[in-house]
Every structure is written in C-alpha cells, then in structure tokens.
Amino acid sequence: MTSQEIRQKFLDYFKSKDHLIVPSAPIVLKDDPTLMFSNSGMTQFKDYFLGYKDPKAPRIADTQKCLRVSGKHNDLDDVGRDTYHHTMFEMLGNWSFGDYFKKDAIAFAWELLTEVYGIPKENLYVTIFEGDASENLERDQDAYNFWKSYISEDRIINGNKKDNFWEMGESGPCGPCSEIHIDLRTPEEKAKVSGLELVNNDHPQVVEVWNLVFMEFNRKADGSLEKLPKQHVDTGMGFERLCMALQGKSSNYDTDVFTPLIAKVEEVSGKKYTGILENEKDIAIRVVVDHIRAVSFAIADGQLPSNGGAGYVIRRILRRGISYSYRFLDMKEPFLYKLVAVLQNQMGAFFPELEKQGKLVSEVIKSEEESFLKTIETGLIRVDKLIETTLNSNKEIKNVISSINQNIPAYDVLKKIQENLNVLKVNQPFLDGFKKIQENIESLNQPIQESFKKIQENINLANQPIREAFKKIQENLDSVKIKLPNTEVFELYDTYGFPDDLTRIIAEEKGLTIDEQGFEAEMQKQKQRSKKDSASKVYDWVVLEEKPETFVGYDQIEAETYITRYRKVENKDGEFYQVVLSNSPFYPEGGGQIGDKGVLENAVESFEVLETKKENGLIISLINGLPKDAGAVFYAKVNAAERKNSQANHSVTHLLHEALRDVLGTHVEQKGSYVGPDYLRFDFSHFSKMTEEELALIEEKVNAKIKENIALQEFRNIPIKEAIDKGAMALFGEKYGDSVRMIQFGSSKELCGGTHVKNTSEIGHFKINSESSVAAGIRRIEAISGDKSEEYFKGLEKQVVELSQLLKSKDVVRSIEKLIEENAALKSEVDALKKEKAKGEIGDWKGAYEQKGDKLLLVKKTSLDAGSVKDIVFQLKKEIPTSITIILSDADGKPMITVGVSDDLAGIYQAGALIKELAKEIQGGGGGNPGFATAGGKNLDGLENAYQKALNI
C-alpha cells in the first residue's frame, strides 16, 4: 500500500462516518500568539475547543502539516539519529466537537487499524490514564471498559500523567488520552521480550501510532482544572509511522514517504544510503531529507527564512541540513534546492501550495545555501585564526616559562611573569598556578620580602610552595589538552552563524577541544537574556458576561461599549490589562495592518488603548489600568489620525499589488506586508531587481488609479467560492473561512479583513521610497502615501529652497555639480600632501626605536590617516627586525591604534593580543593577525593612557 493510498483510505473512512474532510491549515501560524507553528493536528481547531467559534461540523477529519522544533514539543535534536522523529510530519486526525466521545472514538480507531488497514490485533497494545492523586484525577475507567471489548486486558497498560494526560500548553483544554502502540518486531524478537515491557520505552520497533485525546478539562492559568461545558475528541496519528507499519519497514525513512528524496540525495552526492543508525553519512542523509520537507512547506506557506521569530527557526533547520551535508556528504555547493522538485512530484497533488510555489521555494533555498556556505567558508578562516591564536598563546607561555631561570629570586620570578602575562592571551589552567605564586608571595610580610631581596640564596628554600607550583606548571604544560576559549567559540556561533559542532570537529582535528562548560554557560546567558526580555505573566480571564463581541470598526471609529472580560498582564514594562469589549471599533492587528490605538473613557476615568490584537477569536485591547467599575459603560475612540493613514496605506497596497502584476507579470504574489500610519512595506515574488523605469511606471499607474476617485466596493461575508469566481486574489499561507470579505477598487479585487478608504482620492499621493531584496525571489517595496507623502514633498521643496539660498544660485543642480568637481580636485591635492608627509615620517621614525629587553619598541602619536599609517607600519616591521611598532593616531577626531610586530617576533608577541589591551583605553575594539592589528574607539581622550601603557610593553 503506497503512502498516497494510506492517506486517502484514512480520509475516506472518516468521510463514511459522517466527518467533514477539511484541508490542512498552514504550517506557519499567524493569528496565535502562543505558537509559531502548527505542532499538532488540533491547532487549527483551538477556537472550537475553547468555545470562541462554532465548528464547521460536529465531526471533522483531516491530515495536518505539523512542525515540532521549538518550545515544549521539540524533536529537532533527535532527527536523523533515530528512525522515527521528524521536524515536519503529517498528523492524521479525527475530531468530535461535543458529538461522540470515548466509546465511538475507540471503536473508529480499532476498526480502521484492524479491518481497513489489516493490522494484526496481536501486534497492538493500548494505554489508558492511571489517574493522578495530586490533581484528584481518577483512573480512566471508561476507556478501559471500552477497550477490553476489543483487546485482551493484559494488553491494556496503565499510563502516568506524563504519557497519558494530554495538554495543549500551560493552559487551555486538556484531558486523559489513550495511546495505541504497535509492535513491529519479528516473531523471534517477540518471543524473547514481551511488547508490554517496551511500550513507551523508546524502542524503535515498538512505537505509538495513534493517540486518542478525550478533552474534558480546561487548565486555568493558576494551574487548576475545571470541567469543560462539552466533551470533545481530538486524535492524532503519525502518518509516517503508520506508513512504516503498513509497508512492513523498520524505519520511517525506508517508506515511500522518504525513499524518492533519499534516491535524489544519493544521485547528487554520490553517497549510498545504508540505513545504519550510527553511521554519520546515513544520519546526514536522514537529516537532509527530513529538513527539506520542513523548510519547503514553511516557505510554501509564506514563511521565509529570517533572523527572528518563525523565520529564524526555519533558517536554523535549513542551516542544520546544510551543515550535515557539508561535513558528512562532502557537499560544498548548493544542492538541497534540487530536492524540491522531488517533493513536488510526491506531494504536490495533495498539497497544491507546494506545487504552485515550487519555483519560489527552490530559489529561496538555493539562495540560503549559497549564503550559508559562504558563512561556513568565512567561519573556517575564523576558526583557523582562533586555533592559531590559541596555539601561539600557549607557545608564548612556554617561552616565558622557559626563559625564567628558576635560580633567580622568587620576587623577580613573579615580576617576570607579570611583565609577560599582559601580552599573553592566557586561557589555560596555568593561570591558576601563576595566581598561586602571587598569593604566596603577597602573603609574606614586608620584612621577610626585604630580606629575600638581600639574600637571594635563601628565597628558594623559604618559598618552596611557589617553586612546587611553578614546577607543576612546567610538568603539565604539554599534557593538558588546550581549549579554545568559550567566548570566541560562542561568538562564532551566535554572531557569525557558524555551527559549534563544526568548530568542535575542526578543533579536535588540530588536537584541541572547546570549553564545553563555558560554551554552555554562554548559551544559557543568552537564553536568560532573551527570556528576560520577552517574559510576561498572563492571568486568567475574569469573565463579566458571556457575550459574543461585535467589531464595528469598519463603519465607525467610536462606539459606546462595556467590558465583557478582562485579565491582568505583567511584563518588564509594568502592569497592564487586556480587555474584550461588547462593541469594539478597534481594528485588531492582522493582514499586515497594525492594530488600532486610542482611548477607552467615560465621565469618571480614561485609559489609553496601547494596542489591539486578536487571540483565539477575541478582539483584545491592551489598556494601561483597570477601571474602578469594570462593568461601567465606556466610549471607545480610535486614534483617528493614525487610522486614516493606516487605511490609506492599506488600500494603496492593493493598488500596488495590481500594478506590479500588470508591469512585471502575473507571477507576482504578495508574500508579506506591513501597513501602519507611517509607511507601508510590501513583499512580493519576483526574481530580479526592478529597474528605475519599472518603479516609475508602478508609481505612475498607482497614482493614476488614485486620481480616478474609485469608490470602495465591499463584500462582507460572501462565500469564498463566490469571491474567487468574481476574481478575488487569495494569498497562500493565509487561512480563510467559508465566508470571506472582499475589497474591490475597480479592477483590483482581494480577500481582505483590513480597514480601507471609502474612495481612492483619500489616499493622496503614492511615493516609493525603496526597492530591495528580502530573499531569493522575494523583493520588497517601501512606500508612503497620504499625510506622509505630503510631508515628504514639502520637505523636499524646503530643502531645494535652502540649497538655493546657500549656493546663491537658482540652478541648484549645476551649482552642486561644480562643487563636486572642485572637491575632487582638492582631494587629489590633499592626498598628494599626505603621501609627502608620510615619507617624511618614515625617515624620522626609523631612528626613534628604543631597545626594550628582547625587542626594539617604537611608540608614536600622529595625525596621519589610517591608510598612511598602515602603509608605514607594514614598511617598518619589514625593515626593522625584532621590532614592535605602535602608532596612535587622531584622524579627524577619531582615535585609532595600529600595532605591527616584525616576523621574527611573531612567535613571542602577538599584535592582536597587544591591540586588545590597548584598545580598552579608547573604549574600542579591533583585531588582526600576529603580525598586524588595528583598533578604533570612541574615547579620544584615552589615547594618552594608551600611549603610556604602550611605552611599558
């Protein structure tokens, strides 16, 4: 039985049981603040379970695209290392909303598995909830009684709260669940160990195949449970695992869900898949074929890779796949994008978004691959430099220690060590030894120290612990495995996106390791910072009236209203309250348009409405306090000026979309937008940079439509099929109901829930500010209209007048051109003078080196520019052997330090280490290599301190 047949049989079965078959919701969620992705089949039905919306039917079934890579449900780290975990998977499910409950749910599951799919009954086990005394929850006796009519009682297993009590999250609908497990082992293996012992014990051949959740409780924010008014059924069956069971395979990756993708990887990479669990090559192939599914479906649903939020998660998944293919499949060129066509052929018929968006998906993935492969190449160079720096630091430690004669006084030993430590990048345990030396010497009283200076022969005897510590350092210097410093390894990972496991592998090849504990500590610090920034506490709703809210914001921006429910919210900014109003004129954020702000007031008090969002079907406004009388009548007033500009920008995005399709072609589709009172941002599919001519034509077309004074035609609550038949554009990645709202301005027709102008003349002038690339195949236009465009043109006019007055010319353009020509001529003269000055400085500086110990040292201040200083330092370090050159410059008020170390000293002194120490004085940073380094800073006054410190090197 093929995977396509397995999926279809499931849907056909439940259709025969009077279930409405609905399509999968997008994998990326846009209207649920608690989740980034659909992580289970029930996600799109949350509003039904919570009672915020009426279900389309009392019985529903579907197959849902799911992604589990963040939060509580996170399978990312397991993917590739076993046979059954995946980032993206399909969840087959059937639901009952207040209709049938445990008896029918169990009967349907048993009949489908054993009679339709033909799974032998003796291969199945079931679990039930055993109860939990701490929550006063009793054993699920009903489920036990229903199951024993189908399966022997010795195959019904009691399960704890962890495995058999399903919860949506920290709060929300929940209830006991009953899992169905299948034993796929051979008869010989079954004879050795009973399947009862392997259920829920992570055995790859005894796995959960279906979970039946009986929703009968609601978990409140305070942790307590309350009974739901209606009982519901929520089931989920892993499609890939079901295919493994029905196709007689021992791994999900051996089913026809994955084998076409694996075959393509084998073809492109030249590596053969053997299915061995611990083999790194096979792990890499499993990672690649899993991750390409997750990334492809996410992009097809409208989520592009980015540096934040859901986009960051998608980028992270993709980069993990690229990293594995780079390391273990030796793929140094983009190739994951070639798998998209295979995925289209496999699943495009059932998931049309993948078929339609295939070219875009492929282009985006290829671009991301090219970018990350460059990151890897750059990162490899950085890692090599880090390893070189670390090895040189430890080499310098050896040189310092070996240069110290142990027969000299301990006081001088300490002095010698301290002189050298300030130029060493010490990151080894040896530093503890040096500190021990210092502690021992400082513990001696002053008279004894004076005696030590006079009687050097007695120092070694009197200070034996110091000598022993020093000797220990020498003995262990070669035996300790050198660690790369955790801060630099974390910087590679966090700032430059270089995988830490790749750094680990390269370090081990060079005989080094990374500071695992230190790296993990840096990771935890970052997580704590992120958690602190986003932390908030949301209390339970206080329900004043169970009344459906009414949004009146399409027709009015003020309304008499009262609060139907409220809850407290605490975050880093303070204490606020979220309120739901009986009649709300506030538009909730959605469709790219930001939520309305305004005031909620009456004769007694007034509150600022800070934002408005939609959550679980409720329009929620955030206010800066709680009314004394929450049940009082209020007047809700939208900020009229902001709403006016927002709706002008929203309406013009529709005109822009139509103009782009007219000028560039019908391949243009909206991929994202921001609509606010200040400006608009419009992302769209297009594979090349727009020309100036195209942009000018777009502006011309949009402004022509505005001048036509086209009246808004609004169609509320019309059937979606009727809207599509009228020519309305629907956006991929958006979730539409059976009834929709259509907005029409002449020939522009789109499904849209936002607010709009009544006539295009209200938009004013449309002006494009920029056009840029967001990702491969995605362009972005930023523009203004209405009041903002008027302000823009007034500003330009004012600037032209001011320039004309300054230049004392009416022909501003010609006057500026003349200034540019004169400036270029003067710059050439200045450059020539700088070169002459630099030549003079070289001659003077060559004779200014002073002997400092084992080196010649030059420390100079100058006003030369950075380029001239660099040229001089390179020349001096080449011509003056055993030298260190340090130049401190004040170039146009910006402090700069340059350090050069001659090649014969590069093994002892490091320019990079020296520059880091000196840069502290000018509040700056920089870097370089052992022979040359530079640093810029913010504190010009600190140059003198840096100068004095440099003299003492």
Automatic annotation (TrEMBL):
Q: Name one GO molecular function term.
A: zinc ion binding
Q: Name one GO biological process term.
A: alanyl-tRNA aminoacylation
UniProt domain Alanyl-transfer RNA synthetases family profile: residue ranges? 1-795
Q: Which InterPro entries would you find in this protein's record?
A: aa-tRNA-synth_II/BPL/LPL, Ala-tRNA-lgiase_IIc, Ala-tRNA-ligase_IIc_anticod-bd, Ala-tRNA-synth_IIc_core, Ala-tRNA-synth_IIc_N, Ala-tRNA_ligase, Ala_tRNA_ligase_euk/bac, DHHA1_dom
* One term under GO cellular component: cytoplasm
Known catalytic reactions? tRNA(Ala) + L-alanine + ATP = L-alanyl-tRNA(Ala) + AMP + diphosphate
CDD domains this protein is in?
Answer: AlaRS_core
Q: Enumerate the cofactors the protein uses.
A: Zn(2+)
Write down the EC number.
6.1.1.7
Q: Which family does it belong to?
A: Belongs to the class-II aminoacyl-tRNA synthetase family.
Comment on protein domains = Consists of three domains; the N-terminal catalytic domain, the editing domain and the C-terminal C-Ala domain. The editing domain removes incorrectly charged amino acids, while the C-Ala domain, along with tRNA(Ala), serves as a bridge to cooperatively bring together the editing and aminoacylation centers thus stimulating deacylation of misacylated tRNAs.
Q: What does this protein do?
A: Catalyzes the attachment of alanine to tRNA(Ala) in a two-step reaction: alanine is first activated by ATP to form Ala-AMP and then transferred to the acceptor end of tRNA(Ala). Also edits incorrectly charged Ser-tRNA(Ala) and Gly-tRNA(Ala) via its editing domain.
Designated name of the protein:
Alanine--tRNA ligase
